[in-house]
Amino acid sequence: MTVDLQAAVHAESVVDVRRLSPALGAEVIALDISRPVSDAVIEALRATLDQHGVLLFRGQRLNAEAHITFSRRFGVLQEVAQKQYQLEGQPLIYVIGNVEENGRPIGDPSVGRLWHSDQSFLPHPAIGSLLYGVQCPPEGAATLFANMYAAYDALPPQMRAHIERLHAVHSFSEYYEALRERDPTQPELTDTRRALYPDVIHPLVRRNPRTGRKALYVNPGYATGIREMPGATGARLLRDLCDHATREEFVYAHAWRNGDVLFWDNLAVNHKGTPFDTGRFVRRMHRTTVAGNAAIYAASLLG
Ligand code: SIN
Asked: Closest Cα to atom 1, ligand 1: which residue?
C-alpha cells in the first residue's frame, strides 16, 4: 500500500481531524468553510482527503456563493447537466432530494441509488463532489461510501495483476434506461443527450495522481462490461469485483444532520444514496462537482 504518510502527518497537524469509521472518512473539526480558508489549510485538506477518501465538515451554513467559493479551491466546477435541477440562478449547484418550491419539485429525486463514482461515464470523470445537507430527514437517506483503495488492497495478488490489464465499459445510456425502469417519471433520454455521452472505457485500476495509491475503479451504476472479456465471463468478473468492493469492512454509512458537508474523492470511493419516507420527510441537498481533466486523468493511469 503506497500512502504518503509524511503528507498525512503534516496535514493532521494543520487541521484537526477524527476518523469517521474503520473503513474510511475523517471529520474535520471546527473549520468554518464559509469563511476564507488559507492555502496551507486547503493543502492539508487535500492530503487528508488523499488519506481518508471522504471529509466531513459539521455545522456549516453555506449560501450558494460560499459553497462555490470553497469548492473552487479544489478545481474547476462543473455545470449541472440537468438544468431543471440546478439551483435557481446557480448553474454550478445541483439540487438533490424531494424538495418543492411553489408546488414544483426542484431537486433530483432519484440520483445515485446504485453504487457509483460520479460521472465515470465521462472520458475524464469528476474528481470530487461536495454535498451539503440543507434539510435532512431524521431517519433514512444515509449516504454509503465504499473504500476503493482497501478493496483493491484486499484482492489476491494474482487477481490484482490480472485486472490491472483490463478495462471496463461505462455507459450513461444503460444507466439511464435502468433508472427509468425504477422511476418511470424520469423523461425519456433524448438523442442529443445520448450523443453527448457515448460509452467510454476506463482501466479497472487507477492510481491517486498525488500519492500513487492504487484503487479499484469500477461500479455497478455505470460499468456494463469488460472490454477484453465480452460475454458471461467478463460480466461475472465485473459483478464479483463490484460485490467485493462493498463488503461490510470497506463501507461507511453517513447519517446526515442539517449543516453537514461531505467532500469525497471519486477515485478513492464509490457511493450511493439510500431511501427515506418521502411522504413524511423533506430532503434538500446541494452538490457542487469538481471536474476532471485530461492531465489529472493521465496521471491516474498505471502506465
Ligand atoms: C449522489 O450520488 O451524489 C447523492 C447521494 C445522496 O443523495 O445521498
From this structure: 112
Residue 2 has pLDDT above 50, yes or no: no
Ligand 1 mean position to 125 CA, how many Å? 16
Give residue 111's pLDDT.
76
Neighbours of 76 (CB within 10 A): 12
Q: Where are the alpha helices (DSSP H) in 82-231?
A: 148-153, 157-163, 172-182, 191-196
Rounded Cα gap, residues 171 and 32, in angstroms:
38
pLDDT one-digit tens code per residue, 236-268: 999 999 999 999 999 999 999 999 999 999 999
The torsion angle over the Cα atoms of residues 147, 153, 156 and 161, rounded to 10 degrees, is: 110
pLDDT in tens, 63-94: 999 999 999 999 999 999 889 999 999 999 99
- All domains in the chain, ordered by first residue: 5-299 (3.60.130.10)
Give the three-state DSSP class for 252: strand
Measured in Å, residue 274 CA sits from the centre of ligand 1 at 8
Nearest CA to ligand 1 atom 5: 273
Residue 212 DSSP SS3: coil
Nine-digit cell string for 233: 465471463
Measured from the CB, is residue 107 less than 6 Å from ligand 1? no
Ligand 1 pocket residue status of 112, Cβ below 6 Å = yes
Enter the DSSP assignment of 108.
B
- pLDDT over 90 at 32, yes or no: yes
Contact 93, 67 (CB under 8 A): yes
Whether 103 shows a pLDDT value over 80: the answer reads: yes
